Amino acid sequence: MATLELRNVNKSYGSGLTDTLKNIELKIDSGEFLILVGPSGCGKSTLMNCIAGLESITGGAILVDEADISGMSPKDRDIAMVFQSYALYPTMSVRDNIAFGLKIRKMPQTAIDEEVARVARLLQIEHLLARKPGQLSGGQQQRVAMGRALARRPKIYLFDEPLSNLDAKLRVEMRTEIKLMHQRLKTTTVYVTHDQIEAMTLGDKVAVMKDGVIQQFGTPQQIYNDPANLFVASFIGSPPMNFIPLRLQRRDGQLWALLDSAGGRCELPLGALEEGLEGREVILGVRPEQILLASGNASGMPSIRAEVQVTEPTGPDTLVFVELNQTKVCCRLAPDVAPQVGETLELQFDPDKVLLFDAQSGERLGRLGKVRSPERSARVAQFKGR
After folding, report:
1. Does domain 242-383 have CATH number 1.10.10.10?
2. pTM of this prediction?
């Protein structure tokens, strides 16, 4: 196990070109599982290759156990990588694929046999050792690729979108296998994916990337519940967070956000007025499961009546779509709720869970009743180093 730290890492492919990686700052403790997540082209695989030594960085430092490895060759970094394409040797048996790296290190044959047996038992591929990669399914090939990395017992494991070539059912199964494996081995792991479900279920820490910049770094719960900006809020979550443009109204020294529907109007209190907020374009963010069916006035939460436009039963829940402020809004309701199209529902919002974002910068302003001005939000973001 080892700690991994990236200090102000930059990567550029030439002068005058946009940097692929920009001032990357990350630190994970020994044994932690870090997820790098983001859309295609955001720089996550490039960052993975830089950690492995397959690409050089143009600025900053990469440290393992506080030792700078930035200038080391890949073979000297004691890091194992599992590629998206598996990269197995087609003419070798599964046994020889797993043992290949150990033979290169000139380990005794007895030790190699013991290590191959250990890894095969761990991954439940003992019955496949005599086969060639072409005789294996996608999931079996992925296990062999993982076994080859595991046999080295490195300080750090790197996984570059290892499940993207598998079908949906097998992807779920392998995701569970990877998590169980990490729980058993407790080895420091960095895992690249564009799948936000993998990010939420696998990682101890998550770094959300866009255009070579880390937008937010934290636990999956922090990323989900307290997204730093509109991009993070939209990328993490399925179904995604609802974004509703708001009209702000000042009354009695407070700002009120107005929600309109065909069935009526809802006023949401934004707390005490802060300078610079009035007149700004503001977007309300609320996750589908945070929109509730009204349970009467006892809760004291704001409510609004809205007409059902579409329903999508999924089994564990029912997705109901309504229109608020001329925007389609998804509500995730209980599976036994089956409203008809055209039916009117009374919906409630919990102010403690509703977020507000500045429409121009995308930065989060806060929660209802705890809203800060865009200028103050920018100062806070700058102070946190994002």
Report:
1. no
2. 0.85
